Amino acid sequence: MLPKATNILQVQLPSSGEQLPGMMTRTSPTAGNLRVQADGMNVPLASTEITTTTDVPLTTAATTLRLTYRLSGSTVRRTESRPERAASAIRPLTTIAEGGLPTNLTVRGGRLLNAVCPLLTETRCAVGNPPELSVLQGIPADKALVVLQLDLPQPQ
Questions:
Q1: Whole-angstrom distance, CA of residue 24 vs CA of residue 27
Q2: Which of 86-117 are b and which e, b meaning 16 or more Cβ less than 10 Å from the residue's Cβ?
């Protein structure tokens, strides 16, 4: 819940992974299939694709926001000998505006092997036991940068 109602939501993509331990490779993240709910109501969007920092006008001032989207371009395959092994950097699209808000990140489409949150004091943020690992929930938005190690389906 936001501390005060807002009628504009600024969204920003994660930075490239080239400076992140565990990646050290340039990435070009984009977000697609963006859906925004403000106080439980769907917000009509001019575009559901995010390629740069964008202001999203809300239909009414809201204190509760829910964003769902598919993040692409933030993952790198690690080696030819293990083509399923990958590293990925994720963070919420809204970290600028409300840094202290608890954030939940969900990883789908691969098998999570490890998660590291370099901005937290305790950097390991994978919870559970393999093969049922997930990312720690409730990370403050301004600290919710997560570097994932995962196995992805073989490329076709």
A1: 9
A2: bbbbbbbbbbebbeebebebebeebebbebbb
3-state secondary structure of 143: helix
Question: 69 and 93 in contact (C-beta within 8 Å)?
Answer: yes
Q: For residue 50, give the DSSP letter.
A: B
Q: Specify the length of the chain in residues.
A: 156
pLDDT digits (tens, 9 = 90+) for 60-85: 999 988 899 999 999 888 777 788 88
**Closest by alpha carbon to 124, among 22, 15, 9?**
22
What is the CA 33 to chain-centroid distance, rounded?
14
Q: What angle do CA 76, 78, 80 make, to 5 degrees?
A: 120
Chain center to CA of 107: 9
Measured distance CA(139)–CA(11) in Å, rounded: 18
- pTM (predicted TM-score): 0.82
In DSSP terms, which residues pair with 38 in a beta bridge?
A: 41, 65
